[in-house]
Amino acid sequence: MNTLTLPAEVASSEAAAALLQACAVRRHSQAIMSLAQQGQARHFTWHPERIELVSAYVAGVIREQYPDLQVPYHSRWRHFEAGGADRWSALASEHGLDGMHARLQRARSRVDLAIVSVLLDAGAGPSWQYDDKATGQQQARSEGLGVASLRWWATGALSSDPHEPLRADADGLERVQTADLGLAFQVSEANPLVGLDGRANLLRQLALALRAHPDVFARPDAPGQLRPGHLVDTLIRLSPSGQVKAATVLSMLLKTLGQIWPSRHQLAGVPLGDCWPHPDAPGGWLPFHKLSQWMTYSLLEPLEDAGLQVVGLDELTGLPEYRNGGLLLDLGLLQARDRSFHTQRWTVDAEPIVEWRALTVASLDHVAEAVRGNLGLTAASFPLARVLEGGTWAAGRKIALAKRPGGVPPVHIVSDGTVF
């Protein structure tokens, strides 16, 4: 039988494309889970007898936060509502973006905000906080970053049109300086924010990505206006049925925004983003795309607001970050073979961190199934996006607060603000 041998560069290009998909995240992570289930993972052991404990803990947090079990999607929009203040709705009303007449314009603005805010959402560190003067609240960590980014964006700092402040565009993004971001986020020696330079650079890189993909981020009637929010128009144009797959949204983000991340690993010149080598992974790679998936989750509500129906939500995976992953360690579902794992400082590419993240992705599928069983809900009515929000992320924060002063995670990671 004749076989076709592809040139190495073509094969590598196809391998890169395969890694930039939601299904690759789950499939590659499950390969590491299979080893853990056989007791053969290099750095961690898997303890399925603790699934019931973890699911009961998560279900308890869900019932506490959402007694009616009406859990929204896990997304950046929850952080904009920190402290019970609906900041986005107030802004939309103030600027005439509420109501059906402004539906498309509102969705574009929401996508602009969500994409910018997610890029600024890596871990803030334990000391930083934001004073939201409009509400009199002080917020830290993810909530603080969300509120700070919304307030900054709403000033028109990322728009090139002073008459249209509630937007971000290439001209506005490319002029961002670290000092601007530091001032907007109230950074000082007494209020330090991890990875400030990296965050500012991501926004400038976003401007370059918008310019590189006018087919996605421009509109035929406004070819020179490049905005993240024009993704809405593109998806509407490409979805005559009104349905769009969540995995399609993720794939589009990975292909168009992949160049914004700091140079890490590439195949055939294709940036792989949040994708790391591991000797036991299929093809040697473990893709995660954590921030891109977080971005996709955060676009669900704006896209639905625009009239699109986003389907196949569970093609996306759980997010391998320190709240979800910390929950599994703190409750013993995953256990480090070497206890010094919890005292060392790790870089994001360290093999134990990469393996922990893969096992987090795979474990969250098991936990989600058990949580639904505990709550008497189905996967259709309670997709992973709701389990995460209700949910594993909140439970990870709660158990961390119970176990350690300040609620710091059980893993010490050196972050540049672009992964965690």
Q: Briefly, what is this?
A:
It is built from 17 helices and twelve strands.
What are the SSEs and their pairings?
Layout: H1 8-19, H2 22-37, E1 44-46, H3 51-65, H4 77-80, H5 87-94, H6 103-119, E2 129-132, E3 137-140, H7 141-154, H8 170-174, H9 178-184, H10 196-212, H11 214-217, H12 231-238, E4 243-245, H13 246-257, E5 266-267, E6 270-271, E7 275-277, E8 285-287, H14 290-305, E9 309-311, H15 322-330, E10 334-336, E11 345-347, H16 351-375, H17 384-403, E12 412-414
Features:
420 residues; mainly alpha; globular; 50% helix; two-stranded antiparallel ribbon; 17 helices; 9% strand; two-stranded antiparallel sheet; disordered N terminus
SSE arrangement, N to C: HHEHHHHEEHHHHHHEHEEEEHEHEEHHE
Mean pLDDT across residues: 93
- Inertia-based shape: globular
Based on CA atoms alone, the radius of gyration comes out at 21 Å
Query: So how many helices?
Result: 17
Spans of at least 5 consecutive residues whose pLDDT stays below 50 are 1-10
State the distance separating the first and last CA atoms: 48 Å
What fraction strand? Answer: 5-15%
Q: What class do helices, strands and sheet pairing give?
A: mainly alpha
Number of strands: 12
